[in-house]
Specification:
By secondary structure, the protein is of the alpha+beta class. It contains seven helices and 24 strands. A hairpin with a 3-residue loop joins strand 5 and strand 6.
Length: 367
Amino acid sequence: MAVTVMRPVQPEGIERVVIIGDLNGNDEAFTRLLAKIGYTKKDALFILGNLVEEGPDSLRTLRHVMELAATNPVYTVLGDRDIICKELLRNDRNEELLRYVLSRKSGLIYDMCVNSNIELKPDTNMFFVKQSLRVLYEREIAFVCAMPHIIETEHFLFAHAQILPGRLEDMNPNEVIRADAFLDKGFSFDKYVFVGYWPVMLYNRFRRDSNPYIVHKRRIVCMNGGISQKRDGQLNAVIMREPDIRKAEFVYEDTLPKAKVMNSQPAGEYSHSITAADNVVIPLRVVDDFTYCKQDKTDRNFWIPTSFLTKKDGVTYSDDITDYQIPVTLGDVVSVIAATSRGYLIKKDGITGWYYGMMDTSGTFAG
């Protein structure tokens, strides 16, 4: 299969260009974000793939995007999770697909089955299920199959995971939709390249930052804030009224509960984080709802909420976590990731850290 490149001509009257990172099947965050930015038909909306799979509302998210695209200038690139839709067009790999869907009990195909009152069991004939879904969801399947790998405009390039220097059409499709740590490959471009896929917080080992990660010198913008993938994930948007990203507005939305801090606290003097790349830990002792652990790769010690730990085949793994003491001011509204006996793990302005003061959780706060 060859790479598909779309070069759209935008209609007259466009006032803003809006770029949104991976939706990851989270229609609640997508809907809230559109409302927060005041999205209208005068916005050219670019979505960087992975409309589905990770979150709770894959089918609803896909249909929401389709509804917008039917009347508005909406452009989406194909993500590595979106191709699950193409499995419905295959006549083979039926048992593998059934095991995948049953193991997750979520995602696009699972949502399609629930929405159509199709019950999946370990002995379900997935071949016949596929035949039914092809008919019932012909429009959804066609929409996903028509999504290009790359979108190029006069000023920007959009892809799910990466762009390689050279002729776009010469790339391998798998290279476009899957690429770990794209920034670490050292590429630079003449146009700004917007990508998703790799959660942006994985690029910073010392501060957990979910905001768009921009390297102006190399003209690369990484957008995946990890909504539905990480406990502190968010859905990021970049908004431009002119093609100068240095004048852009950055907005995010998450679905975490909001609260108001009742005390000010300064930033900690140092911080370190555990991410998926180095999440093997050695538990040393347990005190209340925390476990004192040594990070296997670095020998650094962390107090980690025990609920963040999982054990498999004798090895203990930690969810992404930081020991950063985040600066806050009395009255700040923050997102609450976890409430523990030692304080609150919160997010403010896209940054995750620990807050050790009193918290007002009694009201409905806009964050």
